[in-house]
Amino acid sequence: MLGNLGRIGPARIFVHAAVLLIVLLWLLPTLGIFVTAIRDKDQIVVSGWWTAFAGSSQTAAARLDGPDKAKQDGANYVIAGTVAGEGNSGNGRIQSFGLRVQEPAAYKVGSTADLGNGETLTVNADGSYRYQKSGPFGADARSKRIYLTIATPPQFTLDNYRSVLRGEGIGQSFINSLTVTIPATVIPILIAAFAAYALAWMDFPGRALLIALVVGLIVVPLQMSLIPLLRIYNEIGQIFGVPSKTYPGIWLAHTAFGLPLAIYLLRNYIAGLPKEIIESARVDGASDFDIFVKIILPLSFPALASFAIFQFLWVWNDLLIAMVFLGTDKDHLVLTAALNALLGSRGGNWEILTASAFVTILIPLLVFFGLQRYLVRGLLAGSVKGG
């Protein structure tokens, strides 16, 4: 074992350390969002997510009963009762108390605080207290205000998710995002697969020019072509009387923006497939369509899956195209737009925002981990060809 460790070079150690650092940089924020989304909203305000399993401590204010509740006990007068501090839900345990907001932990629970003028105060962990004075309380005396340090155990709940999915409109936006993303991922894959096969294995005039055009379109910024595409789409809609804010419109937009990269990736992969397989199929009388369906598609699954990951993540996280082609009405609002609106209206409600954010990233995580084993194979395919 030690001999193997000795053969590991500095470069390899650096690569492993860098990969570990990147994993942690991505994992920690995701873990923080998940933990915050299932915590009680009162605990979110007073402590960070990394303290979720250790409980939290918060300061609460409480008032003792007034002098009219005083009872004589020998030579002393006593006010006894139970404090119910603001923010104390009854699940916490009082650790200490104080008479000033700056010093809420001046006295430990169970100890007796000397308040001067013959007054003493004892507060117990269960909230019961005994306020005693050596003489009668004045008729104009007011109830005393005290401050408590309350320790609460870890509290986890799914109410944040219920609130988001039922009351914040995120549930409908979730369905809208799936309605946009699934077709906008499948359509460009189907079109690109046909185009990639044609550019890789079919001879026709202008093939090299088309390949160069596809490569050039990859570098065209989306923002540069978005407005012209929208104008063309609106003009065609006016001619045929088609509404402008429809799902087919955004499907076609995402297809147009995703096709150059899809064709480039799939063409490189398909061109790297063994030539003998294609020629043998043609000798056996198979048509180009048969070759494409029965040979190319099954062998190209890694490349198809790798592009599907990119396209799905891109469409799912898109905000600009969704707002331009679908608008901002509630019936068509996608998750990113709904979360953006929620951030403006509920910016202080961390439990709502984190639950919404985790709902947003859940599907992309499932898609990525489900297809990630094909990602590297699909990206590297076609980069090296045998002699």
Task: Note down, in words, how this protein is organized.
Mean pLDDT is 81; it is low at 85-89 and 382-387. The chain has three domains: 7-52, no CATH class; 56-152; 160-380, MetI-like (MetI-like fold), CATH 1.10.3720.10. Helices cover 57% and strands 13% of the residues. Helix 6 (207-218) crosses helix 8, helix 8 runs antiparallel to helix 11 (301-316) and helix 13 (335-345) packs antiparallel against helix 14. It is elongated. Strands 2-3-8-7-6 form a five-stranded antiparallel sheet, with no helix packed on it. The protein has a four-stranded antiparallel sheet with strand order 1-9-4-5, with no helix packed on it. It is built from 14 helices and nine strands.
Residues in β-strands, percent: 5-15%
CATH class of the largest domain: Mainly Alpha
Shape: elongated
Determine the structural class based on helices, strands and strand pairing.
alpha+beta
Q: Please report the total strand number as a whole number.
A: 9
CATH architecture of the largest domain: Orthogonal Bundle
Uncertain runs: 85-89, 382-387
Q: Please, how many domains?
A: 3
Short characterization:
This protein is elongated. 57% of the residues lie in helices and 13% in strands.
Characteristics:
387 residues; alpha+beta; MetI-like fold; five-stranded antiparallel sheet; four-stranded antiparallel sheet; 14 helices; 9 strands; 57% helix; disordered C terminus
How would the blueprint of this fold be written?
Layout lengths: L1 H5 L3 H28 L3 H6 L9 E8 L7 E3 L2 E7 L10 E6 L8 E2 L3 E5 L2 E5 L4 E6 L11 E8 L6 H9 L2 H32 L5 H12 L3 H19 L6 H25 L3 H9 L4 H12 L1 H16 L3 H7 L8 H11 L4 H31 L7
Antiparallel strand pairs: 1-9, 2-3, 3-8, 4-5, 4-9, 6-7, 7-8
Helix pairs in contact: 2-14, 4-14, 5-8, 5-11, 5-13, 6-8, 8-11, 8-12, 11-14, 13-14
